[in-house]
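## tool: complex_structure
## caller: assistant
## args:
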Amino acid sequence: MKLLYFAWVRERVGKPEEEIELPAEIATVGDLMSWLSRRGEEYAHAFENPRVIRAAVDRAHVKADTAIAGAREIAFFPPMTGG
Amino acid sequence: MSATVRLQQEPFDAAAEAAKITRGRSDVGAVVMFTGICRGDENGEPIAALTLEHYPGMAEAEIARHVEAAESRWALQGVTVIHRYGRIAPGEDIVLVVTASSHRQDAFAAAEFLMDYLKTRAPFWKRVERADGGTWVDAKSSDDALADRWARPSGRREAAE
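## result:
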């Protein structure tokens, strides 16, 4: 599965994207965030407040309770500030 | 309806885009054009520039989804959305929304709807560049409130009605 990070999430994680093998027990976007936050200091910093982090599964906005089975691409980013 | 969605680093010509939307047709009675411009200050502090990061692929898809939503909600003859990314200096254009309709109400409402959603749903992030470093722009809850009003039946601004 491909993970993408943007803006300060990207800066804190220290990379724009990565390919990962997910343990089978990771069912939702929220599970994935808490699993990532245990992968090291930089991830812990990036995901220290998961409530402010937005997610997209296969390029569509989703909530933290969304199931990730079958997803190809999951992105994490701060609230958007375009326009 | 003709729809154009474009993401680009280079500047755009707002007047030319607005002219394009009506060229060769006589059914358009109203064109609304909104241009978002980079200010020279953020929270009262002078800035050197903004850098806009985006999520390629999703940004186009998300804008296209909202153009379709606008099209289903109002009677539109044309929509153009152009959003720039990369480094943008104060005074330069960031975003353009042009809507064309037979009558002004639909063109005004659709342009406002698209801008409210671009602010809160299109995957772009602004970083402020200052002489002493940089910071990410914080999202504003007032922008969320502006986008939310289009989803509430009581807050609807159905121009056609």
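## assistant note: Residues 104-121 of chain B form the longest helix (18 residues). The domain at 2-155 of chain B is CATH 3.90.1170.40 (Aldehyde Oxidoreductase; domain 3). Handing back to user.
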